[in-house]
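Structural prep section.
Before we set up the soaks we want a predicted structure of the protein with cobalt (II) ion in place, mainly to decide which crystallisation condition to try first. Input record follows.
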Amino acid sequence: MKVQFTETVLRDANQSLIATRLPFDKFAPILETMNRAGYYSVECWGGATFDSCLRFLNEDPWERLRKIKEKMPDTKLQMLLRGQNLLGYKHYPDDVVRKFVQLSVANGIDIIRIFDALNDLRNIRVAVEETNRCGAHASGAISYTTSPVHTLENYVALAKEMENMGVGSICIKDMAGVMAPQEAYDLVKAIKGAVKIPVVVHTHCTTGLAFMTYLKAVEAGADVIDTASSCFSGGTSQPATETLCYALRQLGYTIDLNDKVLKEVNDFFKPIRAEYIANGTLNPTVLATDTDALNYQIPGGMLSNLISQLKAQNALDRLDEVLLETPRVRKDLGYPPLVTPMSQMVGVQAATNVLIGERYKNISKEVKAYLRGEYGQAPGPIDRALQEKALDGETPVTCRFADTLEDAFEKTKAELGDKASCDEDVLSYIAFPQVAEKFFKEREARRENCVKYSIEAM
Ligand code: CO
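Run finished without errors. Recording the tokens verbatim:
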């Protein structure tokens, strides 16, 4: 039996441990080495990397992707895409989704892992279709969570529906690290029995279950697991690549990873980790095991977001109350899985409820939109009174929300004129308008400076 590995150090580990603050120049020197490791794929783009590049790192995310591809021509590059939400927090019209997929593939992406926060498959269909049309691999991801409405039968039905939709693999995406070994075994076994395509398992170490969960998932027939180079593993990140490679090989599984290369990769990232611990970007708390998540169902990124949000408001002492309020808000909303953007929406609403001292006195714009049905179908029943309060007489949307949106790419391109230098810029702008505009200006200033210096040098 063969087990393959997706390395997450450049995306999920980076996002979960250091808020996606790793600039390209920091990891560029190791890419050619990583290219020889024998990974199934390297997850390096999408998720929060795009926003972080533009907002904090002054980097063009598209250029980053092209530069990674150049140094890793033999490795499948993977990205995470939130279906109709792309990388942002709202739904985009189909023409924008298609263009985004086309240009992601054109700039170097081989595998697009596509999920919807609510597992409303109407919201991944267009992205899956376009990925296949572009000749890339569409991986359909199921947002894993536990709740009274998330049953084994429902998960298997989702996997089958995704296979019929044309995905090349099914990923079980446990962003909170709450999938226990037995649950993983049962779920992988059931999905493997129902579909013909490979099954990928993704989890986080947050609660300490992950290594055991992967072992049982592999025993049940999982084809690929997501892991992170050991010095960027553990805590809110993935389990360590080297550890699982060592243990699974001893159990008789075939693993095509090069140990020497894995060590070089880890040795490279060690001083980077030390630097981020020293400058405070990597808070050692997120490296520890926190079993609270088993009760609160808080994913790695969400817990650190909540902590920094409360810190900023001088209310860190209210954390325990917010953690108790979070599952209540989630129940009221029909048990959405706590994945972006639902994790932020539920977290912010729970914090607001606690800090104001009255539940739903303020309902965020996003939660209102959710209650109007703009994010898709909630997995379970929504609290009626809350919905009525939020809708204030409006009728909720029942169709696929994107069907209510008009095409936007060409129109935005025309409006931007020469502010955008290529179609990729137009998409950056559509995804994060203010941030992208500021980035374009700074990029322009840098270019003018370069020209000035080179003229002076002549
Ligand atoms: Co993750």
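Observations: The beta strands are 4-7, 41-46, 77-81, 111-115, 137-143, 169-173, 199-202, 224-227.
Flagged for discussion at group meeting.
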